[in-house]
Amino acid sequence: NSGVVCLLRPLLLDVVPSIRQTTALALGRLADYDMEMAEAIVKAGILPQLICSLPEENRYYKKTAAFVLRAIAKHSPQLAQAVVQCGALEMLVICLEDFDPGVKEGASWALGYIARHSPELSQAVVDAGAVPLLVLCIQEPEIAVKRIAASTLSDISKHSPELAQTVVDAGAIAYLAQMIPNPDAKVKRQVLSALSQIAKHSVDLAELVVEAEIFPVVLTCLKDSDEYVKKNGATLIREIAKHTPELSQFIVNSGGVAAVVDCIGSCRGTVRLPGIMTLGYVAAHSEDLSMAVIVSKGIPPLCASLIEEHEDHIKAAAAWALGQIGRHTAEHARHVAVANALPTLLDIFVDTHSSEDLKMKASRFKALKNILQKCTYLPALEPLLHEAPPTIMKHIIGQFSKVLPHDSKARRLFVTTGGLKKVQEIQAEPGSLLQEYINTINNCYPEEIIR
Q: Which domain of life is it from (predicted)?
């Protein structure tokens, strides 16, 4: 408000290097504070002055100039575009080749903040020739340079298969894979994130990541003391598992499912989410893979997540995953039913506090329905008769109408537990599917019992 930005501008061209550097630092701190300040600095025409003499400047100025560019670019795609338009990318790429690690780190960081906003800005970073130099940076001995360069490669890869392919073509996967066992947690986070962003786009890219021999070493990340390493490790496994049954089978064979199950059981909150999704993706592919999840004791932690978690989207994911496990055969559905998942799923559906998305996942979008349509384990279905709303009731009654005509023991139990009485209370529309189911059940018993 006091017009400081305009007073600082001429000092960027001062003959004394320390004044130029301190001025840039002041501008960087102002820009970092909020979007309005950053916009004011751009409007004052400071960016061209900041970078015009960058290649000749000393390393301290270069680091500070990269900080200013990062501080402006981070706020919005429009401000990042303004940084690109003033010719900053070329200067930043030159800084990636600097002998000083701090200059490389600052340049990588600024490029990452530009690339993360959109595919177009990411493409601009690629076109400026940054990717091969970033791949060299992840091979540097300095931990900070490795970390920021891996983060920037992640930001470039995330937008599209083409951008991820550019990173792959520069040879990044092999170097990233070698860094997974790095003792520094922050490096591991960024490396796992970068590999996830590459693997997520297509089967081919996921296979390239797997071929870099990330298994079984990536499974150790699921036991890491750092929550983000755990989460990013599980995310990487999820992005591989989702593509094909073959990739999921490879994860199972590597002991990946058992490791993910342990991970879900040992953590809470959003850290659980990618692991939950992984089990759902693996189970969705085939009966055998779903059974592999069951054998690895995947159902209990998913049921626990339904009960323990407060965030609706995590409950929704757990409901979806249980639906994927139980939808294949009566045997699969029985395993889910025996774990007492059905009453919990039903409670979520009828709970007025559940979000629409969660209700959709837990019921209409098939979790409960998928399991009920396969489940012939009547002891688990019977308690639901007394609580289920009409939309769910028809699926439960449908399963009873399939089993009771062929099982005399189940018919006797159905009377003594009050199930048959409950069926008589249901008001079904004449000629509806539900009425047909009820008639089939009633036909299993003599008239006087029905009465």
A: Eukaryota
